Amino acid sequence: MGILDRIKRHLPIVGTPAPKPNIPLYVRPAPRAPEPEEAASPRGDRPVPEYVAELIKAHKVVLFMKGTPDAPSCGFSASASSILRGYGQPFHTFDVLVDGDVREGVKQFSNWPTIPQVFINGEFVGGSDILKQLHESGDLKTMLS
Fold it and tell me: Is 38 part of any domain?
């Protein structure tokens, strides 16, 4: 009797293997949740230049930004909204991520390539860097008065 036979004799007896369950070859995937509908743009079907002109005419200060002041989606938008909030005056915002046509259209409207964009008293001021410079020089306070 060799060593393997002695080892086998001391091992517990294991029953026959359990039969494999009958697994179908094709498993139907779970139903997909419906895709969330995109939020409708407040612009509706108005042309972008007309809508942008209406916004900057209706509000003293308009900030076109990525996200909202409470939940900005980029650091530049966060900076611009934070600067404007610091003055305690109301300002209107438009989240360009909600409407890609406005995102591109406001760039053409102002002839400025980036977002955020600030308009004060119906005139284009600039982006977050310019807003920061105006704030630091004290000129922004005068513009908002």
Answer: no
Tally of domains within the chain: 1
Q: How far is CA 5 from CA 2, 13, 17, 21, 83, in A?
A: 5, 14, 22, 33, 84
The answer to whether position 6 is within a domain reads: no
Give yes or no for a contact between 56 and 62, defined as CB atoms under 8 angstroms apart: yes
Q: At which residue do the structure tokens 């920061």 appear? A: 132
CA 137/CA 21 separation, integer angstroms: 76
Query: Which domain covers residue 123, as residue numbers?
Result: 48-144
Whether 52 is in a domain gets the answer yes
pTM check: above 0.85:
no
Q: Tens digit of pLDDT for each residue in 52-91? A: 999 999 999 999 999 999 999 999 999 999 999 999 999 9
pLDDT-derived band at 44 (thresholds 50, 70, 90) equals confident
